[in-house]
Write a sequence for this structure.
C-alpha cells in the first residue's frame, strides 16, 4: 500500500514538472509568434502626439516663463522605434521641462501594444527581465502572468492577448497580490499597420480613471 501511495505521489510531482515545462514552452512559442506579428504590423518607427486630461493637468503646472511658444503649442510627442524604448518629449518648453514626462516611459514600455516584445530582441533577453508565472488559454484569448525580476520582484502583470491578432488588449498590474490598476488598449489601422489609438487607465483606489489618445500619427 505504501509503495502505491509513493508511486502516485511521484506521478503527481512528475506530472506537475511536465506541465510547468510545457507551459514555459507554450509561452515561448506565443512570444515568438507575437514578436513576428508585431514586427509585421508595426513600422520601423512611428511618432504621435499624446492627448488627455492627465497630460493637460501636468502641462498646467508649468510656469509661463518656461514656455518657448504659446501654451496652445505645448504638446507631448511620443516616438517609438522597433527594438528600442519609447520616448516622451514635451515640445515648446525650456530644457528643464522638456523631459518631465520621461518618468512615464517605463510605464508605457510595459503597457499593451509592445509590452511583451518591446525592446527584447530574443526570448532569452526577455527572460532576463521577467519570470513566467502562468499561461492560460481559452477560446479567444491567452492570459499571461509575468513577474519582474530583481528589485521590482514584488510587481507582476497579467496580460490578455487576443489569440487571432496576437495583440495585448488588457493589462492588470499588481504589487504582491494587490491590484494597483488596469489598462485597456484600443488600436487603429493606418495603411498596412496596426497602431495604438487609445489607452484607458483605471486605478483600484479610484483616484485615476483616465485615458490618453494618440493623434497625428506618422509612420516611417
Amino acid at each position: 500500500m505504501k509503495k502505491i501511495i509513493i508511486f502516485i505521489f511521484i506521478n503527481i510531482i512528475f506530472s506537475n514538472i511536465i506541465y510547468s515545462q510545457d507551459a514555459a514552452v507554450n509561452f515561448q512559442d506565443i512570444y515568438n509568434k507575437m514578436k513576428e506579428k508585431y514586427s509585421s504590423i508595426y513600422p520601423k518607427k512611428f511618432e504621435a502626439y499624446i492627448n488627455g486630461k492627465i497630460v493637460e493637468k501636468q502641462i498646467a503646472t508649468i510656469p509661463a516663463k518656461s514656455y518657448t511658444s504659446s501654451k496652445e503649442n505645448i504638446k507631448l510627442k511620443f516616438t517609438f522605434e522597433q527594438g528600442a524604448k519609447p520616448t516622451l518629449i514635451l515640445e515648446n518648453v525650456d530644457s528643464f521641462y522638456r523631459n518631465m514626462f520621461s518618468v512615464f516611459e517605463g510605464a508605457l514600455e510595459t503597457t499593451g501594444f509592445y509590452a511583451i516584445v518591446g525592446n527584447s530582441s530574443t526570448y532569452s533577453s526577455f527572460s532576463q527581465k521577467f519570470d513566467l508565472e502562468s499561461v492560460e488559454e481559452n477560446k479567444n484569448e491567452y492570459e499571461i502572468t509575468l513577474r519582474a525580476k530583481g528589485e521590482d520582484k514584488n510587481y507582476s502583470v497579467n496580460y490578455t492577448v487576443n489569440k487571432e491578432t496576437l495583440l495585448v488588449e488588457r493589462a492588470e498590474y499588481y504589487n504582491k497580490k494587490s491590484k494597483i490598476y488596469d489598462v485597456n488598449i484600443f488600436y487603429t489601422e493606418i495603411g498596412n499597420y496596426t497602431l495604438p489609438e487609445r489607452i484607458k487607465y483605471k486605478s483600484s483606489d479610484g483616484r485615476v480613471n483616465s485615458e490618453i489618445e494618440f493623434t497625428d500619427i506618422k509612420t516611417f
Notes: The first strand starts at residue 45 and ends at 51. Strands lie at 45-51, 75-81, 87-91, 130-137, 141-148, 155-162, 168-175, 178-190, 193-203, 209-219.
